[in-house]
Amino acid sequence: VQLQASGGGSVQAGGSLRLSCASSGRSFRNKAMGWFRQAPGKEREFVATIGWGGPPTYNEDSVKGRFAISRDIRKDTVYLQLNSLRPEDTAIYYCAGRNFAGISTSARAYDYWGQGTLVTVSS
To answer: Picking from 49-58, 71-80, 103-112, which range would have the lowest pLDDT averaged per residue?
Structure first.
């Protein structure tokens, strides 16, 4: 089972990126998927999660209103749209999948992890 994250890059503050997470080896169509990030010298932080049949949940303090998580069931792919990027959003962004449909904001609840994609935001 693999989760392949892509779409990272370098942008200036205020810019946008769209991250993608594609799965192979199994389907996550009806399972919860999440995005986390880890900045240099900091712990891994929850960003957003989407389950099966319910609304997404976001890290209210840091990304609410700027980021949006979505999924394409046919492509079995999850996206994270990053808007109004700030230098403090600079981090490696990881996608993760659960064996369950219910969402979780805890990294320990996720069973599968992608390799991460780097987002760098300059001021």
So the answer is: 49-58
Say if residues 92 and 117 touch (Cβ distance below 8 Å). Answer: yes
pLDDT of 53 above 90: no
37, 49 contact by CB (below 8 A): no
The pLDDT score that the predictor gives to residue 1 is 83
- CA dist., res. 3 & res. 94, Å (int): 9
What residues form DSSP beta bridges with 82? Answer: 17, 67
Best CA proximity match to 50, nearest among 20, 80, 75, 24:
80
- CB neighbours of residue 76 within 10 Å: 16
The answer to whether 82 and 76 are in contact (CB under 8 A) is no
pLDDT reading at 123 higher than 90: yes
Q: Could you tell me if 122 and 53 are in contact, meaning their C-beta atoms sit under 8 angstroms apart?
A: no
Residue 116 is given by DSSP the state: -
